[in-house]
Amino acid sequence: MRLFLILFASLLFSMDQVQAQFGVRVGLHRTSSSNNNGGRSISSSWLNRLAFGISYEKAINDQLKFRPELLFSQYGASFSEGLSSQESVELKMNFIQLPLLLKYHATNSLFFEAGPYLAYGIGNLTTEACVGGFCVSETSEFDSSGEEGPKPFDYGASLGLGYRIFKGVSLGVRYNLGLANLATDEVTFKNKSLLVSVSYDF
Predict the structure, then answer these.
(1) Cβ distance 187 to 143 under 8 Å?
(2) Are strands 153-166 and 110-131 parallel, antiparallel or unpaired?
(3) What whole-number distance in Å separates Cα of residue 120 and Cα of residue 27?
(4) What domains does the chain contain, in order, with CATH numbers?
(5) 3-class SS of residue 112
(6) What is the DSSP letter of 147?
(7) Secondary structure letter of residue 86 according to DSSP
(8) What does the pLDDT look like over 90-130, one tens digit per residue?
(9) Dihedral of the CA atoms 164, 173, 156, 40 (nearest 10)?
(10) Single pTM value for the model
């Protein structure tokens, strides 16, 4: 987490502050995962989570801007494959996420954004197993080997669009596709999410 804070601060201090804006973002984070075990795909359902954080935007020209963000992003997935209709298992985890986006303004209001992201898992993971409305929760930790739990380091690609409602306030939709396998070589576990958010630039 400290590394991400240092990297974000380095980006700010390395760029000219002329035509630059700081901002905040908060939104609904719909998350799930892509899973494969021994060549067999395992389906997972979406969970409603939360994401919020700060942003920095620097104009490259009239239409193109560079926008790094530092977000606290809740991830997770729900699994029910092979279980009865009364059974489910949910995995919940938290990441510090650093999207590095290029933002293109098609009009004064409509914009598109794309770029890579880096993320690092923090805190404990929560696994909740439910049977017929009775649930039991268990906490665990990230594991750098991926054997006892998901690996903490994640990276991927982000693609989104947004619309500026009025000065400083925008609505946005962003899809995050995890490219890092957070499990072992034999098992695939990759994050994916859809962020629907509102942002305010000062």
Answers:
(1) no
(2) antiparallel
(3) 19
(4) 2-12+24-81+93-121+153-201 (2.40.160)
(5) strand
(6) S
(7) T
(8) 999 999 999 999 999 999 999 999 999 999 999 999 999 98
(9) -170
(10) 0.89
